[in-house]
Known about the structure:
By secondary structure, the protein is an alpha/beta fold. The protein contains twelve helices and 14 strands. S-adenosyl-L-homocysteine binds near residues 153, 188 and 329.
Amino acid sequence: MKNIYGVTFSQLEDYFTNINDKKFRATQVYDWLYKKRVKSFDDMPNIKKEIREKLNSDFNFSDIKIIAENKGKDVIKFLFELNDGEKIEAVLMLHDYGNSLCVSSQVGCNMSCTFCESGRLKKVRNLETHEMVLQILKIEEYLNMRISHVVLMGIGEPFDNYDNVVKFISIINSGKGIDIGSRHITVSTCGVIPKIKEFMNLKSQVNLAISLHAPNDELRSRLMPINKAYPLKELIETLKEYIKMTNRRVTFEYILLNDVNDSKENAIELAKLIKGMNAYVNLIPYNETSHIEYKKSKKENIDIFYDTLKKNNINVTVRREFGSEVSAACGQLRANYMK
Ligand code: SAH
């Protein structure tokens, strides 16, 4: 039996066509699920009893549970327990422009970035589509508020769980359902090139962010083992193609690690690497973790790095620091909870 929150709108239309019912039933069901938020087919009175019985035998509403929360000034971190007892997290950030939820895509992560807490736990499994959708629904219900922006930057590598992530995006983006606009959705990847290409062919208008973190292969392979499989030159070429195909600007995330990747030379090299691309760089102050060999860059080095990129005509912003007080860096709440 499938979980109803993992079914895309077009899959649901096909379902009703297949059982010789009307296609528009999908609109009705989505309306009950996502606009009115009912949690049982029996609470959908405009759907005939025999159809409801059929739905009850084909789909379930099994849930995920909030088991801990950690509140900061404008950030709340949630720990969820899944049906099989696995735990994941999501981080809600309250911005002046809206409420943004950072969603996890896997239990653990196999990418082994050397600075990242999430990779301490190897991938246990992919999240099912409904387990991603429910992170949004549960938090909206719990806090009685709407989430306006979603970023796939929690635990896991979204493009290592490609099919479920694409379905997730389709469900939350559907105007018949949760209706979060494409430009309010961001998927972040460490650079799984074949999946970037697949994604590009969908011509999706969601934002694509690339975790770059280094301007050359030697350094990047040291920080991010994925770079050995998908090196920079190929990655940059793929992204140029992506920008051309989708007409969308891409974001480069660059964590600043003290004395590792934050020199002025690194900034110059980065500017050269991405020169002329429709892209911008988001500099991220490192959130210190149990990887004690990495420290946050000094303020003056962040400033020099930023100014150097600016002078070289690169669009750049420094990410506001969110959630260091609640251990909001990937994997930290889960790690603390497990201790
Ligand atoms: N696997 C995906 C998405 C998850 S990580 C990816 O690699 O993009 C989301 C972002 O947070 C990535 O850019 C990641 O490199 C960054 N990140 C990981 N640990 C961090 C930390 N301790 N401080 C700041 N950013 C961190």
